[in-house]
Amino acid sequence: MATLLCGERKVVTRRGYGSCALLVAFSSSSSPCRAATRWVGRYCVERPRVELAEAQLLLSLLAALPQQPKVAARGLEALFAERGEAKLAEVVRRWQVERTRSR
Fold first, then answer.
1. How far is residue 81's CA from residue 78's CA, in Å, rounded to a whole number?
2. Measured between alpha carbons, how far is 69 from 14 in angstroms, rounded to an integer?
């Protein structure tokens, strides 16, 4: 997933943050909970009008990815689409396709 989202980039800059950093925590980090929390924190700061309930939902969906990848990915895709985050929704959609192909 990290390669799908970030290509070969090892460092995520603020400009490339949106579609690049999503879900990297579960692909490349030894502490996915910490990385996911950091990602959601940045998302909340950089996106307008992110409420507490939405931040909680994002954290819950990211936490569910390892055990329930299909359900969590659908939730992330729906949440991003609802917020008008088409780029992030597309990243999740592509990840689902790639995951299905690799099985």
1. 5
2. 27
Percent of the chain with pLDDT strictly greater than 70: 69
Residue located via tokens 């490349």: 28
- Tokens 């917020």 correspond to 83
- Within 10 angstroms of residue 73's Cβ, the number of other Cβ atoms is 20
Q: Which two tokens stand for residue 16?
A: 């490339």
Average pLDDT, rounded, for the chain: 75
Distance of CA 90 to the CA centre of its chain: 11
pLDDT at 54: 95
Q: Is 100 helix (H, G, I), strand (E, B) or coil?
A: helix
Model pLDDT, residue 94: 86
Is 1 a residue whose pLDDT tops 80? no
Q: What is the DSSP secondary-structure string of 52-81?
A: HHHHHHHHHHHHHTTT-HHHHHHHHHHHHH
